[in-house]
Amino acid sequence: xxxxxxxxxxxxxxxxxxxxxxxxxxxxxxxxxxxxxxxxxxxxxxxxxxxxxxxxxxxxxxxxxxxxxxxxxxxxxxxxxxxxxxxxxxxxxxxxxxxxxxxxxxxxxxxxxxxxxxxxxxxxxxxxxxxxxxxxxxxxxxxxxxxxxxxxxxxxxxxxxxxxxxxxxxxxxxxxxxxxxxxxxxxxxxxxxxxxxxxxxxxxxxxxxxxxxxxxxxxxxxxxxxxxxxxxxxxxxxxxxxxxxxxxxxxxxxxxxxxxxxxxxxxxxxxxxxxxxxxxxxxxxxxxxxxxxxxxxxxxxxxxxxxxxxxxxxxxxxxxxxxxxxxxxxxxxxxxxxxxxxxxxxxxxxxxxxxxxxxxxxxxxxxxxxxxxxxxxxxxxxxxxxxxxxxxxxxxxxxxxxxxxxxxxxxxxxxxxxxxxxxxxxxxxxxxxxxxxxxxxxxxxxxxxxxxxxxxxxxxxxxxxxxxxxxxxxxxxxxxxxxxxxxxxxxxxxxxxxxxxxxxxxxxxx
Amino acid sequence: xxxxxxxxxxxxxxxxxxxxxxxxxxxxxxxxxxxxxxxxxxxxxxxxxxxxxxxxxxxxxxxxxxxxxxxxxxxxxxxxxxxxxxxxxxxxxxxxxxxxxxxxxxxxxxxxxxxxxxxxxxxxxxxxxxxxxxxxxxxxxxxxxxxxxxxxxxxxxxxxxxxxxxxxxxxxxxxxxxxxxxxxxxxxxxxxxxxxxxxxxxxxxxxxxxxxxxxxxxxxxxxxxxxxxxxxxxxxxxxxxxxxxxxxxxxxxxxxxxxxxxxxxxxxxxxxxxxxxxxxxxxxxxxxxxxxxxxxxxxxxxxxxxxxxxxxxxxxxxxxxxxxxxxxxxxxxxxxxxxxxxxxxxxxxxxxxxxxxxxxxxxxxxxxxxxxxxxxxxxxxxxxxxxxxxxxxxxxxxxxxxxxxxxxxxxxxxxxxxxxxxxxxxxxxxxxxxxxxxxxxxxxxxxxxxxxxxxxxxxxxxxxxxxxxxxxxxxxxxxxxxxxxxxxx
Lengths: 510, 489
What we know:
heterodimer; A: mainly alpha; 22 helices; 3% strand; disordered C terminus; B: mainly alpha; 20 helices; globular
């Protein structure tokens, strides 16, 4: 079943390749249709996933090439499940939102579907070789999406994106090979399987080097300060669909990898590296937010807000408490939904005005009330207004991180305030007042298609804000299992109030 | 009366077919003066027959191992060898020559009456490199090297009218002979140290006798490595490659580069991994040093090239470094080296086939600017070159990734983790090179709108190389299994 989840979008891409290029009007509807299949399957996986079970489910394992220890090894747990669902949900949405793309539409739809296959593959792969193949392979469709359909400096942005990520993953590949070689020396059987590599015994120095190589690859992907410089370029130049997938899913590869591989494979090194990761995370939170305030470009503002939000996730992850970890994983999804929606909204106004400069707008709320309302709603979700999804994740991260990293958490909390500043100020400048620019006075409000595109995301913001249990029930056992393993293999003890029950109690007590 | 020496025709089969085929091409040309394209077809048939001969040997070898037939895999008193290693190499060379003829068909046809010579030289050069990898005898190896190389010197200068082609030929000839001299000097020193020219005898000797002062032997080995490093364009012995590959006829460069690499690496791996595996501690460090230098020099100098052929030549230097990464693993690395060679040389022939199509079959020089907007002028060429370049870059889902993964893994197992890290960083640099070409093709406007004609053989070459890059990237296992058993005796 998981194999089908990877293959369906890929098959969709191949089918689209067979449609003659002249029938341009067909491609977007076809693409959306092709991505409904994976979405349905992902929904089925999501509902049939057994909650309360920490281990991998629906495991598929076939030997691929035994002399090297390669296998086609897929599985899903509470950490990857929400991300797979998010990917499957967003692809039809971004395709439906991509009407502004006119040239080489066929290739665009193909690359998007291939990207989906790769992204789902990354989250499902339990063989590190397979993981790496997917991790690196998604660079190609993303490279073309930015490079062909991007803005003015698209080539620069595409190459920068590619080289940054490739540099990180090169060292990670060395670490993967090294880990597998160590494993085969110890067991005599070559294997790249995650579950086998968990058992490798490493001396502390080696573990730190390997941790470093993995962490570098993922830190570039997240991106963590100071490795974030590719992100604003890539986001600003990418077409809307590219920005949405980049922010909502590609960045999550980094946080997913940190949890799955860094915490999972190198427990002791993770404990040792907590100060480094926490400092960088907090710098990212504050720096991203401060830089976002002064951005004149709406898209760049959202891009820097990602740097800040992702900092929260990393902080929560390396707080090594279940509140922080679960909060981070939940925030992964929440950020994907809200930032995805923000990029879609920015894309919609860009399609109308062909500018993203905040100064070019003003008074839009009078001309486009529905658009303005949805923008404000998403802004609130992003800031973390209670009752909307952003609140749950951020609040859990902060409460969860406090017991183990009090100082950092206090500084990080300022990021919440800053987020309110940059987003609301941008809203004020662009939407309130009178529409004094003539170009803005004749703008049309959202049409039905655009409303439909945004509807699922808005509903999710509300749903996950009011009833986060859907997510928590699935995420929590797997996250706790990782912490249990860290406790079992190192002398680190998760601080008592860091256990999740405590956090939830506090939340209810409010 | 002296009994006539027993000739093992069977062991000679592929070489014999190829040599006679080359002669036949020349004779047919003189007698019947057919259109050159018929000669190309004839040569293709000869190469297919050669491959069939190699397959027949493989079948015979399998029966021999099962004890169903008698004979020796070392006929002619150990001057030739029939092992899986030689058979795989023969098949690979035949495939490369076939693809090379397809890529160069337009050039060859344009030669008119001189076409037969060019075809014969390609066949002879192939036979030379085949001999090189199917002998365990150092002097025979030298003979093969010279047959192969001298034919290539002539091919390099085949566009006599063009100065650059002449320059390429002279440069290739002078520096190539120099390298051959170094190689044969190495052979002499190894002979002086061990008293034998036969790799198996040397292996046996080295296992019995511990050299108190292995100085002469080590110098000999070093010279062998240098001589072969020259042929496979490893740094710092790569200086000739960019000039030669830029000046030689575009249609033939792919074959020239690929065949020399297969021959050189196959010989190097056979010498080092069979006879001198015992000295691996000593020579592996040297080879690792050459590998590091090749990867760095190749990747970085490729970045600043403005001519696509020079760029490919420098990237070839980097690839030589990657393959040498597999050599340091000794015998354990041979399977991965074969896989890498098979994958890379095919991509190389494909990429130069695109060069031949874009810059005209014989004209020297192919500035990167002439690839601008290729996706608009001739999408087929641009798509094919993109896949081939991604393959060379070693992006997952292409065969190049599996190839790199294989050699890196073997090197890591052999304790050369640092070398793998250097290699991976060098490959990130090389990404930039290939991306730059892709950007030029897809994201820039064409400078000229001359229509690019694709001949049928060229299309076949492009489709084959492209298909191999993708298929062996998605389903590498059959080829991996084949290369893993293609070991020397």
